[in-house]
Amino acid sequence: MTPQPHPQVGAAVKAADRAHVFHSWSAQELIDPLAVAGAEGSYFWDYEGKRYLDFTSGLVFTNIGYQHPKVVAAIQEQAATLSTFAPAFAIEARSEAARLIAERTPGDLDKIFFTNGGAEAVENATRMARLHTGRPKILSAYRSYHGATSTAINLTGDPRRWPNDIGAAGVVHFWAPFLYRSPFHAENERQECERALQHLEDTIAFEGPATIAAVILETIPGTAGIMTPPPGYLAGVRGICDRYGIVFVLDEVMAGFGRTGKWFAADHYDVTPDLMTFAKGVNSGYVPLGGVAISSAIAETFARRPYPGGLTYSGHPLACAAAVATINVMEEEGIVEQAARIGETVLGPGLRELAERHPSVGEVRGTGVFWALELVKDRETREPLVPYNAAGADNAPMAAFGAAAKAHGLWPFINMNRTHVVPPCNVTEAEAKEGLAVLDAALAVADEHTA
Q1: Which long-range contacts (CB under 8 A, 24 or more apart) does 176-180 make?
Q2: pLDDT at residue 1 in the model
Q3: Which residue, 223, 310, 370, 402, has most beta carbons within 10 Å?
């Protein structure tokens, strides 16, 4: 589709937004949302007709791109057949979505509890773990994001937790491995893995193993920085949880459904959790949907005991129809394999080449279409390009980088001192190379702020 300029329509959309829409995570008078006119594939455009290559996949959810015709048609067909129905009934779209998801989850995660998104999935997973074990505490990593509902935001490690932290949610944070900024003074991945596992086990010992219901980890942390865990770490956490009767929860809300080049990031590490949360890519975000994949042992807890939780729109027919179509499209078009190939042959090599040329790039890390560039002032000291949780003038270098990318037609995903490279899983080789070229130009702006 060729974008057509409609500036007057755009101005009206913008005016209504500013008058009535209350935006998340924002100081309302300090933001200037772009008015979006349309989207297709890996691109979206504004009412001036300017087109952007979306290297954010929305909020890392359009895993099959925008407006895939088969998913749009499935939503339309479901709306014409049965647009909505209460969750207590057996509905074809809901049953089929659950079956397709269960076929792809690791191990015996064969029961699916549907939610409206990732935060509600985390909320219910932790509730299940507490009820299953009869224990109150949940352990989560500092470098993490699990959602914005009450428990999920307390589990989160990043600064968005701070104003929401009630200090009484039964949450204990610990340090997960991150060799580039190792809290364990490790010199290699083996040391980082061993020391991180020992730190976790020490934390459990001092908190009291019999008080801990679950350990929750993003398989590969998303918003916090796309830090792929060192070999053996997740298997080690699985072993620790087994020793103490602790439920192991993997959060795959962002990493799941092809983003890492596998159906789930857990598939890279040959590990099966007791509970797995998902959302976003399950239906490419076309209709809100999330859920919890549940092991047989935890499902058995609620076989004759009612599960005390539910949602009016759990397994909404339109959302589930979109999930069925999305999963089928991913199979038919080889989209998971495409994500792996693009990561291995285009994005990985291309980003590492950029790092060689740009002193602002401290580290490149990722897999599939799930990458991060750690931007620094000084490669030797690894000082971040902007301070932790920077805002205003302190964030000027990252703001300048982002503005340069947008000026060249790329919409970047920026968080603190990082830019994440997270295009749709079916991004083409040409589109990926187009994005790398824009990043090359934008990183030259970031280089101006290095030592």
Answers
A1: 176/141, 176/142, 176/143, 176/144, 176/217, 176/221, 176/227, 176/229, 176/233, 177/227, 177/229, 177/230, 177/233, 178/143, 178/225, 178/227, 179/230, 180/227, 180/362, 180/363, 180/365, 180/374, 180/382
A2: 67
A3: 370
